[in-house]
Design brief:
By secondary structure, the protein is mainly alpha-helical. It has helices at about 25-45, 50-60, 65-75, 90-100, 145-165, 195-205, 220-225, 230-245, 250-265, 265-275, 280-290, 295-310, 325-330, 350-360, 365-380, 385-400, 405-415, 425-435, 440-455, 460-475, 480-490, 495-510, 510-530, 535-540, 550-565, 570-585, 590-600, 605-620, 625-640; strands at about 80-85, 110, 135, 165-170, 185-190, 335, 345. It has a five-stranded parallel beta sheet, sandwiched between helices. Helix 5 (about 145-165) links the parallel strand 3 and strand 4. Helix 1 packs parallel to helix 20, helix 11 crosses helix 14 and helix 17 (about 405-415) runs antiparallel to helix 18. The model is unreliable at about 1-20 (pLDDT under 50).
């Protein structure tokens, strides 16, 4: 086969939804699929922020050189700046420093790194709670941000001391020359831990048994000499998975060999092969198989045809039957079809090397590759598992070659009104992969914020953002996830608002700090009278007894109720009844009813409405509710300065 495949196999077609009509039932199916895909992705990409994940890391963590000094610095100065070469485990070290702090029961969270409506500066003292454990990752920061953070750090340290809080900062290695002299005493340069000992610890924690001599091979030694800490952990994980799937007659040496084989660099071989493969169609087939590796021959052929079209490759006028068939063409590029009918390269790791080569050494066609990939994923015949793998492969190349906006563009294109709802999981996945990237995650958090606040964002994309914020961003940046979910709940359609509200409920369920953050945002929105659903969100999300003993919480509740009571009675009557029911518990009665009474203020009309709702509530429930109503009336009178008769001498 010498030229274009373009006329030989047309693209499969399927029904797609178009137009502006309601598609919520179909969308809901694919929103659920997106949620499942991101949860599965998260299980493979531990970011060790949640307590469960931190414990998982702690069991496998090998303290690097400099760890003890870092512990001492953090304990005595409240701040430790972690430097070191990329790949030495700086992020893991910073997390473990905070995780190990004695006697701290507060949550551990990463400081926001984007311009949100709640962030007045780079380091916000409002982020500091008593005993807080804070992480600031500057490993990929640009010069201006690194300098600005250093300037703000001095005042921030005073806030840390006042609250007994601690901050671990991961420094950008390439900007070490910009570190201010007065901060150098707070800096620790860590060394890379022994990779062989680290591998052994990971394997033992995963229950993989081996003999000491199994880890002394030359090929393993060559790999460990250069591998970053995360790649050592990745090798251990591949060995674990091979143990679970290999035949019973294979043991650790076989698992290790196969795991290293998949890691082996095939770049030189690919470059040599491409110097021989001069045919455009042959190269298109090579890249198509690399990106859609493990799919059917038909899928690979369709992708190759499409790529030739996108690159305006001239068609081959040779009659089809005079050209080689697909079997011969696949054989010529080192591929074969397995027993399941899926086509793969014969050499492990070759597909990764092909992708790396094309994106590295043909930079002038990266935009066309983006367009090509967008069109290929629109094909409804491509199964979900194949789509998931292809999206991950494309995203890896886009992020590796500093083209994160290709993924943002794909999400926008796939969520346009005229496209199929089948693409919802794919759009969610590309955004989640961008969020998880160390270099470009900040750009994606900022973009999602801009989408969340923009009135131009379509509801389909908003549904994707809810899933991405709830399932991916919330794991590492829960504050920023909360801000975006709040905006989505405020601005979107009723369906998206319900989904965003449910996500907010899950997010704040077990985190008092996030609950207080949300109350503060609702207070600002309600008091300022901004249009939106803040009153509705407050009534749905505020808990009448949660943290009611805190003064700042009671003040926020009073402010929110004050604004809510200005609306019609029917909108808040059920919520008041729920609060009155909570007030039947004598432990909380005084504070709950005082919140309602203070919210009435001195307005007799509102006080009367609240009291009448309470009377109706007392008649519909169990006996004994009249005492709660009497207590409410007494609280209203006290709030309005009306003294009871029996207190007047």
């Amino acid at each position: 086969m010498r030229e274009s495949y373009g006329t030989y196999l047309s693209e499969a077609q399927g029904a797609v939804h178009t137009g502006a009509g309601s598609q919520f039932v179909d969308q809901h199916i694919y929103v659920q699929a997106a949620t499942s895909r991101l949860r599965e992705q998260a299980s493979r990409r531990k970011r060790v922020i949640t307590e469960e994940d931190r414990k998982h890391l702690a069991a496998r963590f090998l303290p690097p050189s400099g760890m003890q000094l870092a512990r001492t610095l953090l304990a005595t100065s409240q701040v430790a700046l972690i430097g070191g070469l990329p790949g030495s485990g700086r992020q893991a070290t910073a997390l473990m420093l905070l995780h190990e702090l004695p006697g701290s029961h507060s949550t551990l969270h990463e400081l926001p790194d984007t311009s949100d409506d709640t962030s007045p500066g780079l380091l916000d003292v409002r982020e500091i709670d008593d005993g807080a454990r804070l992480l600031l990752d500057l490993s990929e920061a640009e010069e201006s941000r690194f300098l600005a953070v250093q300037e703000a750090l001095f005042d921030f340290r005073e806030g840390l001391k006042a609250h007994g809080a601690h901050l671990a900062v991961v420094l950008p290695h390439r900007l070490g020359y910009l570190l201010r002299g007065e901060l150098k005493r707070l800096t620790v340069e860590i060394g890379r831990p022994s990779p062989r000992r680290l591998l052994a610890r990971h394997l033992l924690c995963d229950g993989v048994t081996f003999a000491p001599e199994d880890l002394k091979g030359s090929e393993l030694g060559s790999f460990l000499t250069q591998a970053p800490v995360r790649d050592v952990a990745g090798l251990a994980d591949r060995i674990r998975r091979l143990r679970e799937t290999s035949p019973a007659d294979r043991g650790f040496p076989d698992w290790l060999t196969d795991a290293l084989l998949s890691q082996r660099d095939q770049s030189a071989r690919v470059a040599a092969d491409l110097s021989v493969q001069q045919s455009g169609p042959r190269r298109a087939l090579l890249l198509s198989l690399a990106l859609f590796h493990g799919t059917t021959p038909e899928t690979v052929l369709q992708a190759a045809n499409s790529l030739l079209t996108v690159l305006s490759h001239p068609p081959d006028i040779t009659p089809r039957l005079e050209q080689a068939d697909l079997y011969a063409e696949l054989h010529a590029i080192g591929a074969e079809t397995d027993a399941n009918g899926q086509v793969r390269f014969r050499t492990p790791g070759y597909d990764q090397a092909v992708r790396n080569h094309f994106w590295t050494f043909l930079p002038d066609i990266r935009r066309q590759l983006r367009d090509w990939f967008k069109d290929r994923l629109i094909d409804p015949a491509l199964p979900q598992p194949d789509r998931t793998r292809a999206v991950e492969r494309f995203a890896f190349q886009a992020l590796r070659t500093a083209r994160p906006r290709d993924l943002i563009w794909l999400a926008e294109q796939w969520m346009a009104r005229e496209t199929s709802v089948r693409l919802i999981p794919d759009a969610a996945q590309v955004l989640a992969l961008g969020l998880d990237d160390d270099r470009h995650g900040r750009l994606f958090r900022q973009q999602i914020y801009e989408w969340a606040v923009s009135p131009e964002t379509g509801n389909r994309l908003r549904r994707v953002l809810v899933v991405v914020c709830a399932e991916t961003m919330a794991r590492t940046h829960p504050d920023q996830a909360l801000v975006r979910l709040h905006h989505l709940a405020r601005r979107a359609s009723a369906q998206v608002t319900a989904e965003a509200r449910a996500a907010l409920t899950r997010l704040i369920a077990s985190d008092n700090r996030l609950y207080c953050l949300l109350l503060g945002r609702l207070k600002i929105g309600i008091v300022s009278g901004r249009p939106g659903r803040d009153p509705e969100l407050f009534l749905a999300l505020a808990d009448p007894v949660r943290l009611i003993g805190r003064r700042e919480v009671r003040e926020a509740l009073v402010s929110c109720w004050t604004g809510v009571l200005q609306s019609r009675v029917g909108s808040w009557e059920k919520a008041e009844a729920r609060w009155l029911t909570a007030a039947e518990d004598l432990r909380h009665r005084d504070q709950v009813l005082r919140v309602l009474a203070l919210a009435c203020g001195t307005d007799p009309r509102i006080s009367g409405q609240v009291y009448r709702v309470a009377l109706r509530w007392s008649r519909t429930g169990q006996t004994g509710r009249s005492e709660t109503v009497t207590h409410l009336l007494r609280s209203i009178n006290t709030a309005q300065g009306i003294e009871p008769y029996d207190s007047i001498a």
